[in-house]
Design goal:
The chain has 335 residues and is mainly α. The chain has a domain at 50-64 and 148-328: Orthogonal Bundle (Hypothetical protein af1432). It has helices at 24-37, 44-47, 52-58, 60-63, 67-77, 83-91, 94-104, 118-125, 127-144, 153-173, 180-188, 191-199, 201-211, 215-226, 230-240, 245-252, 264-278, 298-302, 307-312, 315-330. The longest helix is centred in the middle third of the chain and has 21 residues, at 153-173. The radius of gyration is 23 Å and the shape is globular. The termini are far apart. Bound molecules: fe (ii) ion (2 copies). One fe (ii) ion binds at residues 159, 163, 189-190, 215, 274, 285. One fe (ii) ion binds next to helix 14 and helix 15.
């Protein structure tokens, strides 16, 4: 029986020797490989924009923040804003008010006293954090309306919510200031994908198939095939919504935390939380959860924890309990 061919002098397998005429079987294998992995040619839809910002501006009418968010951001920046000004704006949207109060009363905040008005929520939670929550809740509602035929929208948001609660728990474990920022970043880390699913569904479907449930692989493929990724799109959407610069950076670099300096610990937290969500079997980003995924080694330099702290500690248990509660809060988003 013929043995396995030995590598050539240059260390490469003989199959890849440029001078060798490939055998019939090699050519068949190569043809099958190309059929299996080839993307369809770039559709006209994709040729119309060549950059992430081109796509976001083309669809800005679809993903623009609602008027309530613009007003809330204005109020949060004003020195003279009173709780009742804020309440007046929020109360115009009963659905937003209901979701916000449900969130304020969840174990996410852990307040014993009941928060039953927006004015009370401002007092208890604080204007800065409440502004983040209004933006996050409104963004989930707006982005949930983006039509897509690629992924189940419930699966998408389950992944986002699970990533958000793990990110918040990790932030607490790492003693990061204002862990709620990480909840918001985790919640919106993949929103850029929704634009791709909507605008280039066939390309997105092919990319998802090739990634086989591995979101890191999906990100790499997007960069290769499109020149930008869902993370780039997400960062731009956060900019459009006037989210703080740091949140934009965390979302933009959640697959490449080593490329960001100032917000590296936060980007590392969302990167790690995303991988934990994807390998949990509970909150994978698509129907086929990843078996494993490689954590960027920069995480272990940037954060005062190691993987054992997470696997052995109560974080994943706590995240699971909070996840179930948050699913209830955000289930109102589609209504
Ligand atoms: Fe992602
Ligand atoms: Fe993700």
């Amino acid at each position: 029986m013929a043995g396995r061919p030995e590598p050539g002098a240059d260390g490469r397998h003989p199959r890849y020797n440029d001078n060798a005429w490939p055998s019939i079987s090699d050519r068949i294998i190569s043809a099958i490989y190309h059929v299996m992995t080839a993307l369809p040619p770039k559709p006209d839809a994709l040729r119309s924009f060549e950059t992430a910002s081109g796509l976001v501006s083309e669809l800005s009418w679809l993903v623009s923040p609602p008027a309530v968010c613009t007003k809330v951001t204005e109020l949060a920046h004003s020195q003279r804003t009173a709780a009742r000004d804020f309440e007046k704006v929020i109360n115009r949207d009963p659905n937003l008010t209901a979701r916000l109060l449900k969130l304020a009363n969840s174990s996410y905040f852990g307040y014993a006293a009941r928060v039953d008005t927006v004015a009370r929520a401002v007092t208890v939670i604080g204007l800065r954090e409440l502004k983040h929550l209004v933006l996050a809740v409104s963004a989930v509602k707006t982005f949930s309306k983006i039509d897509n035929r690629i992924v189940n929208v419930n699966t998408f948001w389950a992944h986002s919510i699970y990533c958000a609660v793990i990110a918040q728990e990790l932030a607490k474990l790492c003693h990061v200031l204002h862990p709620e920022r990480l909840f918001v970043a985790g919640l919106l880390h993949d929103v850029g994908s929704l634009l791709l699913y909507h605008r280039v569904p066939e390309v997105s479907r092919q990319l998802l198939l090739m990634a086989e449930g591995d979101e890191e692989a999906l990100h790499a493929r997007e960069l290769e095939e499109l020149g930008f990724s869902h993370a780039d799109l997400g960062g731009l959407l956060m900019e459009l919504w006037n989210f703080p610069e740091q949140l934009q950076q965390i979302v933009r670099f959640h697959h490449q935390p080593s490329l960001v300096d100032e917000s590296r610990p936060e980007a590392c937290i969302v990167h790690f939380a995303n991988i934990l969500a994807n390998t949990s079997g509970l909150g994978g980003f698509c129907e086929a959860p990843a078996d494993s995924a490689r954590v960027d080694p920069v995480v272990w330099d940037a954060l005062p924890i190691d993987e054992g702290d997470v696997q052995a500690g109560p974080i994943l248990e706590q995240a699971r309990a909070r996840y179930l509660e948050m699913v209830q809060v955000f289930s109102l988003c589609g209504s």
